[in-house]
């Protein structure tokens, strides 16, 4: 039976339950959600599949060892005892990061230095040579977590964070991270058979993540991972896993995704991003569209579907849009008139959004957009409930 190892997958706060499901689908066992991450066990194949396929993880770490400690010298001795040479060689560059939660250590920088000393002293002792530190482009990344009693060493499987799929050419204004955008789609219950509209698309993150998911494109197919540098890396197994993922791609997926933004420059950039994401075929035949349009006058492309968006918060407002609050009132009027039967999900840091829109939310999910505490509001645009439409009145 394949050897089982312990891992920790980091994810945006609030998306833990989604990543639990993803990890199980990759063959993980002993899956246990924590705050902002999930512990799990699995084989090397399971970890590779998780890195390749998870739309929600930010990073996946492999647990090497844990030891209790009293001070930085204990941590140095622990680094000296850890069998790093089983995972990488002295010719590879390293980067070490340390995180603490209720640790009694007085200086984390000093503890980090002592971990580096411990690793280098061990290599010098056994091999008369040691790895160099490269913080910008390391071959191997080590994470140390210290709590009140224990220090745990992890190896990073990813390198660049997993939300970096490799398709983004231009960021636009305040882009969502790709894994948060995928999380919004999952939380909203979007499936490819439901028409999707993002009237504040910016760089196109929500639409692009949706289209790629609909086409079965594994998010990590066009990027590299640090586990490819490990001494025991099984290249044949990895190629097999990637071949499997490639065989799932279906560019004929039947989807209808309409994204728009008030800025034509931003729309052009979103389209560039979509082409770089391998979605040219969907753009050509209109299954995925990007257009310049004010969210206050966007039309529904079908009788029902989902609107999923993150409208500008306060200072992000386009100068053409007056204040965000009054704009959102007009957006709400448009949704009521033109999107009956649709469900709208909006991510915002503004808790007053329902009041600004004169709508009551049917659900509210707390989430974080980076450090910004947000709410993901659901509004049901009930058919026939809106009276006095301006079209009828005029
Ligand atoms: C927070 S950003 C959206 C970011 C996007 N989710 C992404 O990942 O790149 C808000 C966007 O709303 C656009 N915007 C502002 N007012 C608008 C309006 N009245 N109609 C349509 N788009 C508008 C801005 O140009 C900006 O691109």
* Shape category: elongated
Listed once per kind, the bound small molecules are:
S-adenosylmethionine
What are the secondary-structure elements, in order, as H or E? EHEEHEHEHEEHEHHEHHEEHEHEEH
Total strands: the figure is 14
Instruction: Assign the structural class, choosing from mainly alpha, mainly beta, alpha/beta, alpha+beta, or little secondary structure.
Output: alpha/beta
- What's the average pLDDT? 94
List the defining traits of the structure above.
394 residues, alpha/beta, VC0802-like, Rossmann fold, 2 domains, seven-stranded mixed beta sheet, elongated, binds S-adenosylmethionine
Structure overview:
The protein is an alpha/beta fold. The chain has two domains: 5-156, VC0802-like (2-Layer Sandwich); 178-215 and 250-383, Rossmann fold (3-Layer(aba) Sandwich), CATH 3.40.50. It is built from twelve helices and 14 strands. The protein has helices at 16-25, 44-53, 72-81, 108-127, 178-187, 205-214, 235-247, 264-276, 280-284, 324-338, 353-357, 390-393, and strands at 5-10, 29-34, 37-42, 59-68, 94-100, 140-146, 150-156, 196-198, 257-261, 288-292, 306-309, 343-348, 363-369, 372-380. Strands 2-3-1-4-7-6-5 form a seven-stranded mixed beta sheet. The chain has a seven-stranded mixed beta sheet with strand order 10-9-8-11-12-14-13. Helix 2 packs across helix 7 (235-247). The chain is elongated, with a radius of gyration of 24 Å. Mean pLDDT is 94; it is low at 389-394. The structure holds S-adenosylmethionine.
């Amino acid at each position: 039976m394949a050897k089982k190892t312990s891992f920790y997958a980091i994810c945006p706060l609030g998306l833990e339950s989604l990543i639990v499901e993803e990890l199980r689908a990759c063959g993980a066992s002993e899956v246990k959600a924590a705050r902002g991450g999930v512990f799990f066990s699995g084989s090397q194949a399971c970890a590779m599949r998780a890195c390749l396929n998870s739309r929600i993880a930010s990073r996946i770490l492999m647990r090497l060892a844990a030891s209790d400690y009293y001070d930085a010298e204990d941590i140095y001795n622990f680094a000296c005892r850890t069998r790093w040479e089983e995972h990488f060689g002295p010719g590879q560059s390293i980067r070490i990061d340390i995180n603490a939660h209720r640790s009694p250590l007085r200086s984390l920088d000093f503890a980090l230095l002592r971990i580096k000393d411990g690793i280098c002293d061990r290599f010098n002792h056994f091999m008369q040579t040691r790895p160099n530190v490269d913080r910008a482009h390391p071959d191997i990344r080590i994470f140390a977590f210290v709590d009140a009693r224990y220090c745990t060493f992890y190896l990073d499987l990813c390198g660049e964070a997993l939300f970096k799929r490799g398709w983004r050419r231009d960021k636009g204004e305040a882009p969502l991270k790709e894994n948060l955008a995928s999380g919004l789609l999952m939380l909203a219950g979007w499936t490819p058979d439901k028409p999707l509209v993002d009237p504040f698309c910016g760089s196109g993150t929500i639409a692009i993540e949706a289209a790629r998911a609909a086409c079965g494109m594994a998010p990590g197919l066009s990027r590299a991972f640090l586990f490819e540098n490990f001494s025991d890396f099984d290249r044949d197994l990895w190629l097999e896993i990637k071949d499997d993922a490639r065989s799932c791609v279906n560019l004929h997926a039947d989807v209808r995704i309409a994204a728009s933004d008030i800025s034509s420059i931003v729309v052009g950039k979103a389209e560039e991003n979509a082409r770089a994401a391998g979605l040219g075929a969907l753009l050509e035949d209109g299954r995925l569209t990007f257009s310049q349009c004010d969210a206050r006058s966007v039309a529904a492309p079908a009788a029902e579907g989902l609107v999923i968006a993150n409208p500008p918060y306060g200072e992000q407002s386009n100068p053409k849009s007056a204040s965000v609050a009054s704009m959102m009132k007009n957006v709400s009027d448009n949704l009521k008139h033109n999107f009956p039967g649709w469900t709208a999900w909006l991510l915002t840091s503004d808790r007053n959004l329902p009041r600004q829109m004169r709508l009551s939310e049917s659900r509210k999910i707390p989430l974080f957009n980076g450090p910004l505490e947000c709410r993901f509001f659901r509004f049901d645009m009930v058919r026939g409930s809106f009276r006095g439409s301006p079209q009828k009145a005029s």
